Amino acid sequence: MFNTFYANGPTVAQQYCSRLQVIFRQQIQPWHPSSTLAHEAGAAVLRLAPEKFWQFSAALFQTRRSFFDVSVVNETRNKTYERLARVAGSVGVDKQKVLALLVIPETPNSQD
C-alpha cells in the first residue's frame, strides 16, 4: 500500500491534488510494541523537519523488518530509538535532535 501511494514523493496526492485531500493518520498498533516506537520517531521527524516525513517513512518502510517485534525483543527501547534516529539521519534529518526527542533518560529528572 505504501509503495502504491508513495514513489519519489506522494504521487497519488500530486496526480489528483485538485480532487483529493490526503490525510495521514498514524495508526499505532498496541499489539506490536515496536510500532509505538516507530510512530514516535515519525512524530519526531514531523516536528523537526515536516518536509522530510515522507522520505523518512519510505526509508523506514525499506528497513521495516529490522523493527519488527521479533527483531527488537532483545534490544532496549533507547537502542531501538537510536536505530530509528539513524533512519531519520539517512534522509537528512538531524539524528541527534530526533534522538533527543525520543530517548528515555537513564536517571530520573530531579525536577519531576
**Biggest β-sheet: count, sense, barrel?**
none
Shape: globular
For the record, give the distance between the C-alpha atoms at the N and C termini, rounded to a whole number: 43 Å
Stretches where pLDDT is under 50 for at least 5 consecutive residues are none
Work out the radius of gyration.
15 Å
The overall strand count is: 0
Class per helix and strand makeup: mainly alpha
Helix content: 40-55%
Mean pLDDT: 87
Strand content: under 5%
Can you count the helices?
A: 7
Question: From the structure provided, what is the oligomeric state, counting identical versus distinct chains?
Answer: single chain
Secondary-structure element order, as H and E? HHHHHHH
InterPro entries: Thioredoxin-like_sf
